[in-house]
Automatic annotation (TrEMBL), chain A:
SUPFAM superfamilies, sorted: Stabilizer of iron transporter SufD
InterPro entries: Fe-S_cluster_assembly_SufBD, SUF_FeS_clus_asmbl_SufBD_core, SUF_FeS_clus_asmbl_SufBD_sf, SUF_FeS_clus_asmbl_SufD, SufBD_N
Alphabetical GO biological process terms: iron-sulfur cluster assembly
Protein name per UniProt: FeS cluster assembly protein SufD
Segments forming domain SUF system FeS cluster assembly SufBD core: 209-435
SUF system FeS cluster assembly SufBD N-terminal domain segment(s): 11-199
Family the entry assigns: Belongs to the iron-sulfur cluster assembly SufBD family.
Species, as recorded: Methyloligella halotolerans
Automatic annotation (TrEMBL), chain B:
Source organism of the structure: Methyloligella halotolerans
Domain ABC transporter: 2-246
CDD domains in UniProt: ABC_FeS_Assembly (cd03217)
Molecular functions (GO terms): ATP binding; ATP hydrolysis activity
Family annotation (PROSITE patterns): ABC_TRANSPORTER_1, ABC_TRANSPORTER_2
One Pfam entry name: ABC_tran
Record lineage: Bacteria, Pseudomonadati, Pseudomonadota, Alphaproteobacteria, Hyphomicrobiales
UniProt similarity note: Belongs to the ABC transporter superfamily. Ycf16 family.
Protein name per Swiss-Prot or TrEMBL: Putative ATP-dependent transporter SufC
């Protein structure tokens, strides 16, 4: 295929192009002309963009080009058995044992024998492998695969495209070009599941690998879904992950959506959420980031129907030299919608947390109510928090606001707890838990909230009773 | 017995306690009164082990043991309890969780069996009931959105749960309505015993009608400047602190 010539390409950028050239005939959907075209278009987009670097506004604090040394080879599915013990080891028992319909995506491949396909079918949901879906691409998924991450609105002021980094995204392009597996979940009109759907991603058992997967969720009118995505390693020596989740929430649907990231120390986790919300949707999203050397969580939300309420919260718990970046673009295209973002980071050692959220209110999106808050608790001198809120408002009757705080543990509160007999380490842990707890409280479902409260306590090294 | 000798303490280079002496025999209740800024809360904080205050001289012995070298939690375990003038609000920590963590930490340090959750709930319910604290309040984050009086009652609840042997009450009466004052005073009186000593800091003689002290001390400019029996409080009510070089109360 023809790729535009670019003068400077880093080694890893070239490696990624090479791996596409070598693989593209073998990738799922290769026989399907539309998919093949979407893939090569995406690779061309990537080739012209290159990996994001710090001079791109949205990647200011996370210079991926500088941080990624080499491209690991794509994971080869081995199809080997994966038992409960292994899942527990990767995710920890609290998360692994959540009562749910289970979907397993291991080594970049949908594992039907480990997934509750039949039980979901009986409950009214259709679960399919992404690879299989790509062979016979249904019409409604075409536009989803063509999504580039480019900002849709906000050009009323005639600015150059992509000035704020909201042009086409190279990580999304790479995902489209290289994705090997994943799942497609559909809930028909009015379907409401009795348990959450837990999509477990496991990768990296031996040599360093990269894994590129996608999860597509489409809910019908009035449907109700609890979706948990979890990501863990299998004890391998390195992992580069590119995981993309697309949700199209039909009118009046209710979605509880949580991502739990607990990969191994060396992992690089690149995640994209592309959410399209129609009218009167209630969407409650949460991201728990607790592993890996580098995590980038991009969240793009499109309000396409009136009366929709989106609530997003995140907790990042980092230590050593971990770096986690949560960057959001929220586009209010229609009136009468509400968006809330609450980000909390606990930063120890020399870790670094980044929170950027850009809220765009299009000219027609009157009565938009948008608020965001980013907060960091710094547990050491060497930790760093960077936050950048952005509001681009083109409508005149809106309520929008943002705030940010960053600080250490309050010594007066600490003294109060110690004066009641609580030893200092435990008192500190209690205050950290309290800080994270304000985000965890946003999780509506108690078993999940309890599981993550437990994970937080484990991370802090305290015993819960 | 509490024995404070020649206690000097400062904060940010400013000396606040300037050679304070005070002895409270076991089983007695002493009151401290004194003008604003004379160092009463400072004394309370120093007794509880607040590190913002630097002790430069002197000693504080509780039952013969020097407590100035101890961490605040160790002091709590040996029986020191401070009811704060301004109790802290801690969002995100449920009052019940806080109470259980504190009580079990102290029990553990004292070599006692930790309470199971149901046992603890039972004990808390009883004590909360005595202090007319609505148990629903205990589900809320610690002190967040509590009224002034509710916070003070919550302090006394903590005191009765932690079973201290030295109780320091810093203006526990301020902000209480008449009924709450009676309830709190009854709570305090219920804890009076021959094994327990109490130091009650207050501006108002009225509290001392309920909690009748064995001795009253006047503190001014970082020292105890006069001591007497319960009648001294009545006298101060009349005369104010002018004779101690303080501003009139
Ligand atoms: N953090 C601080 N920095 C500087 N000065 C302080 C600090 N804390 C207290 N002080 C000063 O120490 C002195 C004693 O304060 P303290 O709170 O002990 O007085 P108090 O007797 O309890 O007064 P009140 O009756 O108003 O409660 C005051 O002059 C006060 O301004
Ligand atoms: Mg005071």
């Amino acid at each position: 295929m023809d790729l535009p010539v670019q003068q400077f390409r880093s080694e890893i950028e070239q490696e990624l192009l090479d791996s596409f050239a070598a693989l593209h005939d073998a990738l799922p959907g290769a026989q399907n002309d539309r998919v093949a075209k979407l893939r090569s278009d995406a690779m061309e987009r990537y080739a012209s963009l290159g990996l994001p670097h710090r001079r791109i506004e949205a990647w200011k604090y996370t210079d991926l080009r500088a941080r990624l040394g080499e491209a690991y080879p794509m994971v080869r599915p081995s199809g080997r058995p994966i038992d409960q013990a292994e899942i527990e080891k990767g995710l920890g028992p609290r998360v692994a044992n959540l009562d749910s319909y289970r979907v397993v995506i291991a080594e970049g491949e949908f594992r039907s024998e480990l997934s509750d396909v039949q039980a979901l079918k009986e409950a009214g949901a259709e679960l399919r492998s992404l690879a299989e879906t790509l062979e016979h691409l249904p019409d409604d998924l075409g536009p989803l695969l063509a999504e580039t991450g480019e900002q849709r609105s906000g050009f009323e002021a005639a600015r150059p495209t992509g000035r704020s980094g909201a042009g086409p995204d190279p990580i999304i392009a790479l995902n489209m070009a290289l994705m090997t597996g994943g799942a497609v979940l559909r809930l028909g009109d009015g379907v409401s599941l009795d348990k959450p759907v837990h999509v477990i991603h496991l990768d990296g058992a031996g040599e360093p690998v990269s894994s590129v997967t996608r999860l597509i969720v489409v809910t019908g009118k009035g449907a109700s879904l609890d979706l948990i995505e979890s990501y863990a390693g299998l004890g391998g020596r390195g992992l580069q992950r590119n995981a993309l989740t697309q949700i199209v929430a039909g009118a009046d649907s209710h979605i509880e959506h949580t991502k739990i990231q607990r990969e191994e120390d060396e992992a690089v986790h690149l995640s994209n959420w592309l959410l399209t919300l129609h009218e009167n949707v209630r969407y409650n999203g949460f991201q728990y980031t607790n592993g890996g050397e580098l995590a980038r969580n991009d969240v793009r939300v499109l309000f396409e129907g009136e009366g929709t309420v989106m609530n997003f919260s995140a907790a990042s718990l980092l230590k050593s030299r971990q770096h986690a970046d949560t960057t959001m673009v929220i586009e209010h295209l229609v009136p009468h919608c509400t968006s809330r973002e609450l980000y909390k980071a606990v930063l120890d050692d020399e870790s670094r947390g980044v929170f950027q959220a850009k809220v765009i209110v299009a000219r027609d999106a009157q009565k938009t109510d948008g608020k965001q808050m980013g907060q960091a608790l710094l547990l050491s001198e060497g930790a760093e928090f960077d936050t950048k809120p952005e509001l681009e408002i083109f409508a005149d009757d809106v309520v929008c606001g943002h705030g940010a705080t960053s600080g250490q543990i309050d010594e007066d509160l600490l003294f109060y707890l110690e004066a009641r007999g609580i030893p200092e380490p435990q008192a500190r842990a209690l205050l950290v838990q309290a800080f994270v707890g304000e985000a965890l409280e946003q999780i509506d479902r108690e078993p999940l909230r309890d599981a993550l409260t437990g994970v937080t306590a484990d991370w802090l090294g305290v015993k819960l009773d | 017995m509490l024995e404070i000798k020649n206690l000097h303490a400062r904060i940010e280079e400013k000396e606040i306690l300037k050679g304070l002496d005070l002895t409270i025999p076991t089983g007695e209740v002493h009151a401290i009164m004194g003008p604003n800024g004379s160092g009463k809360s400072t004394l309370a904080y120093v007794l509880a082990g607040n590190e913002n205050y630097e002790v430069t001289e002197g000693s504080v012995k509780w039952n013969g043991e020097e407590i100035l070298d101890m961490e605040p939690d160790e002091r709590a375990a040996t029986g020191v309890f401070l009811a704060f003038q301004y109790p802290m609000e801690i969002p995100g920590v449920a009052t019940m969780t806080f109470l259980r963590t504190a009580v079990n930490a102290v029990r553990k340090a004292r070599g006692m069996e930790e309470y199971s959750t149901p046992e603890f709930m039972k004990v808390v319910r009883e004590k909360a009931n005595e202090l007319q604290i609505n148990p629903e309040m205990l589900k809320r984050p610690l002190n967040v959105g509590f009224s002034g009086g509710e916070k003070k009652r919550n302090e006394i609840l903590q005191m009765s749960l932690l079973e201290p042997s030295l109780c320091v009450l810093d203006e526990t009466d301020s902000g209480l309505d008449i009924d709450a004052l009676r309830i709190v005073a009854e709570g305090v009186n219920a804890l009076r015993s021959e094994k327990r000593s109490m130091l009650v800091i207050t501006h108002y003689q009225r509290l001392l009608n309920y909690i009748v002290p064995d001795r009253v001390h006047v503190m001014a400019d970082g020292k105890v400047v006069r001591s007497g029996d319960a009648d001294l409080a009545l006298e101060l009510e009349e005369t104010g602190y002018a004779e101690f070089g303080g501003k009139a109360a």
